[in-house]
Structure to design on (450 residues):
């Protein structure tokens, strides 16, 4: 048997329905915030990520899926979305548009050769957004509050927003120097990775998971103390806007982020759920005012965020959030003989083109087995196509929730279904979002399993 590669996932069945529901919510929310969907290639020339994400990052040094194509070019499967979106922004000269800032969002798989574990995949999906062309602290606050709102709308309660500021280049450099000065005398106490980071990328020592509990980490300089006046004021403004928007946050100086491109605001969203495990950062982002210029574009400021789709799904499961996914069909058409089967072919086609979710039998099952199949599919209505009824231009429609049966004229069938079908599968009670087939709420509702 050929099995899937390590660190990848098949998403199917009810899980696939949940993915589709969450994607739909993301699309709807992004529309309200006026972000434009963008699709960029799965692979890009390797140089994009080396220059964009940073030569010294774990992602570029250890985790990229690199390959040489048949034309001898060095290619990389995208490990994240920001660099590709920025490349597209520059290549398509979108900086020349008048509608500034440009606001993009995406929902796509990324590839990182990491050690797989719960919540850590090699093919991971991220949904994220980028606001390119504004340095206003309000855009920082929007990028953060948007994340919080999506989680809130989906019903996820256990989240913690950790924010920090790395400041402008001057502040970042001063901080960098302070870190080197602090850690150099203790180099032997650091893990192997951090010893290397000390020269190349000392900021990353701060979020090292191996050295985290050591004394030298606790006494390490804090970003906030190295912000110059301008950076400090800017960070204050971001916090003010967050407060106006009612976003709860914690200022956490250990948030420095794993990618090189950040300055000023950086933030991470943590799943604050008991037993979630080590991979509890469900999203992260920050400002990257220099990336567009580094990649050959004009000097344009930007901020963005990306959420781990896979980790979000784990969080929703762990909190037992009941997503209102459709787990039923509108109508099952049953038949016995060939003439009735032909009518099923005709009617299913007609009804589907009129917007109904219709199934019929494709296995020449007995009538009893067709009823069972209709039940398995949670069909809201069934129609047994009977030749005699059809001659009279009518069908017997059974409502499988109320168990009532009615003879309906074929001319009135669409109207009848329109009038009698419940639009969605969500429990009718105000405070319950369960699917009617799974609902166990204590209210006096008329869900299926009552
Ligand atoms: P990142 O922190 O590398 O940032 O990834 C964002 C989120 O993707 C993480 O917080 C995590 O939830 C999820 N994630 C990362 N790696 C894995 C993995 N191996 N398996 C499962 N989930 C994973 C970025 O990618 C930046 N591009 C975010 C950004 C956008 N910054 C500015 N704009």
């Amino acid at each position: 048997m050929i099995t899937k590669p390590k660190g990848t996932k098949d998403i199917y069945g009810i899980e696939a329905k949940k993915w589709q529901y969450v994607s739909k919510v993301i699309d709807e929310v992004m529309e309200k915030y006026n972000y434009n969907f963008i699709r960029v290639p799965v692979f890009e020339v390797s140089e994009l990520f080396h220059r964009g994400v940073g030569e010294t990052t774990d992602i570029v040094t250890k985790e990229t899926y690199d390959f040489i194509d048949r034309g001898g070019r060095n290619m990389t499967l995208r490990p994240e979305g920001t660099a590709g979106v920025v490349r597209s922004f520059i290549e398509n000269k979108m900086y020349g548009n008048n509608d500034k800032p440009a606001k993009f969002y995406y929902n796509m798989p990324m590839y990182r050769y990491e050690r797989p574990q719960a919540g850590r995949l090699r093919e991971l999906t991220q949904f994220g957004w980028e606001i390119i062309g504004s340095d206003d602290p309000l855009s920082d606050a929007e990028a953060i509050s948007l994340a919080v709102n999506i989680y809130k709308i989906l019903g996820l309660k256990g989240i913690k927003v950790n924010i920090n500021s790395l400041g402008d280049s001057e502040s970042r450099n001063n901080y960098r120097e302070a870190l080197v000065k602090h850690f150099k005398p203790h180099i032997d106490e650091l893990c192997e990775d951090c010893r290397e980071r000390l020269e190349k990328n000392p900021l990353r020592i701060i979020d090292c998971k191996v050295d985290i509990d050591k004394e030298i980490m606790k006494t390490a300089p804090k970003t906030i103390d190295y912000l110059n006046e301008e950076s400090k004021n800017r960070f204050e403004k971001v916090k003010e806007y967050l407060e106006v928007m009612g976003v709860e946050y914690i200022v956490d100086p250990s948030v420095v982020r794993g990618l090189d491109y950040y300055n000023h605001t950086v933030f991470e969203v943590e799943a604050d759920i008991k037993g979630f495990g080590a991979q509890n950062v469900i999203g992260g982002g920050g400002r990257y005012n220099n990336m567009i210029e580094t990649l050959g574009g004009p000097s344009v400021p930007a901020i963005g965020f990306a959420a781990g789709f896979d980790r979000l799904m784990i969080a929703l499961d762990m909190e037992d959030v009941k997503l209102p996914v459709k787990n039923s069909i509108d109508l099952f058409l049953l038949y016995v003989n060939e003439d009735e089967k032909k009518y099923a072919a005709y009617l299913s086609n007609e009804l589907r083109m009129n917007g109904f979710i219709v199934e019929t039998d494709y296995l020449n099952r007995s009538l009893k087995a067709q009823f069972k199949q209709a039940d398995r599919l949670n069909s809201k209505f069934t129609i047994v196509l009977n030749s005699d009824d059809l001659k009279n231009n009518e069908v017997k429609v059974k409502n499988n929730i109320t168990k009532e049966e009615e003879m309906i004229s074929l001319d009135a069938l669409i109207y009848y279904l329109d009038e009698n079908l419940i639009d969605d599968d969500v429990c009718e009670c105000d405070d319950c979002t369960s699917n009617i087939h799974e609902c166990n709420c204590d209210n006096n509702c008329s869900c299926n399993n009552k």
